[in-house]
Amino acid sequence: MSRILEIAGMTFVFIIIFLSYLVVVFGLITGWIKAMAVPVPGVVKEKFISVIVAFRNEEKAIGNLISDLQQQEYPRDKFEVILINDHSEDNSVSVINEALRGPISSKLMNNASPGKKSALTKGIRHSIGTIMVTTDADCRMETGWLRSINNSFYDDTIKMTFGPVKFQEDGTVFQSMQAIEFASLIGSGAATAAFGFPTLCNGANLAFTKDVFTETGGYEGNEHIASGDDEFLMRKIEAKYPGSIRFNSHRDSLVATAPQKTLISFLNQRLRWAGKWRYHDGTNSKLLAIYIFLFHFTVIVLPFFVLMGDVSAYVLIGLLLAKTAIEFFFLRPVCSWLGIRWRWISFIVLQLIYPLYAVGVALAALFKTPFWKGRPLTSS
Q1: Which of 68, 73, 149, 361 is the most exposed place for a label (fewest CB within 10 A)?
Q2: CATH code where residue 146 lies
Q3: Percentages of the chain per state (helix, strand, coil), in multiples of 5
Q4: pLDDT tens column, 197-239
């Protein structure tokens, strides 16, 4: 009798944990629908925009970015491009000087101190725009990108907007998996922002007023952290101006970037992202990170409880099928909106390996120093 109660109790615990996850993902589905239902702003008075790009060793990609910026359907006298060289060791500067022979206002400068945050800060200090826009050197965007950003600041109460970013695909399962996984982050960021408590954004497609950057101290207080220039600033702004952050849902706001080509570069990127969570000041952010870690850890250990006879195999199958179904109903619409081709094989493989790598990367980030652009990133 005691054994039956033990099995029932363990089964109940796992069911409650999985049910909580289903509720969370259902909330994200609702939030995504809510974000997509927000009316796209119409004509908004043109503000002066400063596009800030910190780059390091981007000779192969930055020419395309500059070309896209030169083709923006936004008045030439209403935006500038500021490029800050973060100690590049390749021919990035030569490529930029060649590409900048177009009809846009631009500035190219060197960063004295290493690090993306200091480079962005220098660019912002030398800017003359009302709206600061950050993107990455390997990004591509449509001609209406800047127009959509300008229109996203349709109200003076809006201090920051963030747009969607997608990974381009080359047809391989590895890159398709990255695209689907990254779509989950974009969808989650849009969904939580729609409910008024933004949790995620991406510096590859971020806009904020110069005034609010100055008021909140910009990146002060987290310069030593290897990543998080986008999210730390977002939390500062949300703390000072609650409800002032929006997701830019205009189709032209989409930015595309390249996924990682190798497993090593992929893991380094994820280590860099994971390493910032423990530095968040907000309780909600830390609790969310802990919850995600514990849930995926639960997914990993559940089969072992089945093998030991503590949980029925039917319970395992039912819980995993419910998890897969709810994630499909969340991810498929997000991928469709982003223009990411849905591949079942990539989605299924992710179901199998994501908990393992999510837990592994989270633990490794506590001890391992990631490398980025040939340079170790430290958080001390």
Answers
A1: 73
A2: 3.90.550.10
A3: 55, 10, 35
A4: 898 999 999 999 999 999 999 888 766 565 567 888 999 999 9
